[in-house]
Prior knowledge:
Layout: E1 3-5, E2 12-14, E3 16-19, H1 43-55, E4 60-62, H2 71-79, E5 89-94, H3 102-116, E6 121-129, H4 131-139, H5 143-152, E7 156-163, H6 167-176, E8 182-186, H7 197-206, E9 210-214, H8 227-235, H9 242-251, E10 258-262, H10 266-277, H11 286-300, H12 322-334, H13 339-347, H14 374-386
Parallel strand pairs: 3-4, 3-10, 4-5, 5-6, 6-7, 7-8, 8-9, 9-10
Antiparallel strand pairs: 1-2
Helix pairs in contact: 1-2, 1-10, 6-7, 8-11, 12-13, 12-14
Amino acid sequence: MQYRKFGRCGFQVSALGFGTMRLPTDNKINERTGDRFSGNIVESEAIRMIRYAIDNGVNYVDTAYGYHEGYSEVVTGRALKDGYRDRVYLATKSPVWLVDKPEDFDRLLDEQLKKLQTDHIDCYLLHSLSRDTWENRVLKHNLIGKGEAAKKAGKIRYFGFSFHDNLNTFKEIVDYYDSWDFCQIQYNYMDINNQAGTEGLKYAASKGLGVVIMEPLLGGRLAKPPKYVLSVFASSGRKDSPAAWAFKWLWDQPEVSVVLSGMSTMQQVQENIKIADESGIGMFTSEDHGTIEKVRACFENRTIIPCTKCRYCMPCPNNVDIPGNFELYNETVIFDDLETPRNSYKHFFDDENRADKCIGCGSCEEKCPQHIRISEWMPKVHALLSAE
Length: 388
C-alpha cells in the first residue's frame, strides 16, 4: 500500500480509504453496488471486507450518521473490534441538517461514539456543506465552536468538513476558519470544473488541509463506462481497467491525500488495493493525460441540453432548480445510466425544486445565454427522472 501526507496533520494515510456508504446489502440494485439507501447490510461480509482492507494496508475508514439508514456506523464499529480500531484513522460526519440548536451537535456526536464503540473519532466532519447549511446550520449554531470544544474534550482529534456546492462557497468556508484540519470533496476526471473542482483541490491543499476525495468513480459510472468510452481507453494500448484509469489519475496529483472508495464486494476491495499499490504521484504520462482528455470530451459531447450551469436563469419564481434538473437529465445520456440520476431526483431533490413545478412562465428563457427552451424541456425531464 502507498501512503500519503494528510495535510499539516503530521501523519500519513493509505492512498485508498474504505468508504462505508455502499456496503453489501441483501437487496442489490445492480451488479455495481449494494443499495446505499438500504439498512439491510450483509454484516458478516461487510466486516470481512473492511478487515481484509485493513489487513492489506488501508488505514482510513470513512462512515457517516445517515449511511445505510444509520446502520453503517453500527457495522463499522463492529468491524473495528478485535484490535482493528487501533490500526485505522476513523472518520465520520455530523449530520448538520439535524442540528436545530447547538446542543444537538453534542447529542449526535455522543450517539455516534456509542454506535462506533469508541471513545474518540479521529477525523470528524461537518457533513455535506452547502451555502444553505453553512449559513443556516453551521454559522447559526456555532458548530465550529462546538467542534473545537469536542477536540479539547478528546472526543475528536481532527476537524473538517465535506462539501457539495460551488467553488466560491468552498473557498469561503476554507477561509472562514484558520484551523480546519482537512476537507472532503467530490472529485474525479469528470468533475474538474464541478463543485470544488481542481481549483478547489489545489486551494485547500495550499492552505495545509488534508484533502479526502469522494466519488472517484462517480457512483460507479466511471468503472462501467459505455462502449464508446471503452474504445478510447483501448486505443491507448494500456491494459488498465476503467476504474484503474480513474484512480491513477487521482493518485497522480500531489494535493490528493486519500481516495475513498465505496466498495460493495470483496472483488472490488481486492482490485482497488492492487491499483493503489501501483499508484504514485507523477506516474501518469502526457499520453495518459491525453487519453483522459479524450474520454472526458467523449462523455461531454453526448450532452443533450446545452446548459452550462451559469445560473442566469435563477432564481426561478417557482423555486425550480433549473440547472440541477438539466444536469441530472444530461447524466442519463452522458453515462448511459438512468438509475443514479433517478435516485438523486427521488432522494436528494426537494419536491419544490423538481421539474414538474415549472409553470411555463418563460421568465428564465429570456435570461438564458444558450437560448434553451426551458419550459418545453421541464416536462420531459420530470417524465424521465420520475419514472420507476
